[in-house]
Amino acid sequence: MPDDLTPTVLALLALAGFVAGWIDAVVGGGGLVQLPALLLGLPGATPAQLLATNKISSIFGTATSSVTYFRRVGADLRTALPMAAVAYLGAIGGAVIGLHIPKSAFNPIILVLLVVVGAYTLFRPDLGRESLRRFHGHRHVALAMLTGFVIGVYDGALGPGTGSFLVFALVGLLGYTFLEASVKAKIANFATNLGALTVFAPGGHVVWQVGLLMAVGNILGGYVGARTAVARGSGFVRAVFVVIVGAFIVRIGGSLLGWWS
């Protein structure tokens, strides 16, 4: 563990893990909290170490929220498991890519995607309130798998907003409600975290002590967040989705404009 980590910094990192776990469980996007916290708490860490440590924390939270959602809402595993399998493979490829390219190159692309996603959701108030399945049978599963693979590559290479992108794709492309989409998104997000760690962990990039400490907060946040989302329903998840996407836009847009580092 780095020598400059004081008990106060460790406590704040654990708190950031809890908040990130809650956000991830409800709608995805906990990296908006967790990655900046790691950047501040581990100022000497490399980009690969930050990404890897974030993944080891996040995978515990996504595992917890996945189990909680599945027990309380259920999920069609005939779609969820193939989607998660290819998301895992995509994240492995993405992590290999992410080790060799500057992360700053992705920010403009991410910002455009978030603006489009946020605007589309905001101006479609009925989106994700009712289940209106698009495509059926093998076509439905195939589109879910394509979605999982593409977003898996993105998560392995960079990651911010992965959960939100998964939820939006499942709602906008496949016609799920926000709550239904959240269940499948958590399962796929667990797979993408696992895929990235398949590359990062053997490479020695994980700061294990910090990652496992934040994982405790992530587990608690994931459990509370999943129960909150199930109790409040798709309307609540949609509202949180819009807020989180808006926060991403401000965070990334501000970085590009030089408002903060």
From TrEMBL:
Primary localization: membrane
Pfam families named in the record: TauE
GO CC, alphabetical: plasma membrane
Origin: domain of life: Bacteria
Transmembrane regions listed in the UniProt entry: 80-99, 105-123, 143-176, 206-224, 236-260
Topology in the lipid bilayer: Multi-pass membrane protein
Keywords: Cell membrane, Membrane, Transmembrane, Transmembrane helix, Transport
Family per similarity comment: Belongs to the 4-toluene sulfonate uptake permease (TSUP) (TC 2.A.102) family.
Protein name listed in UniProt: Probable membrane transporter protein
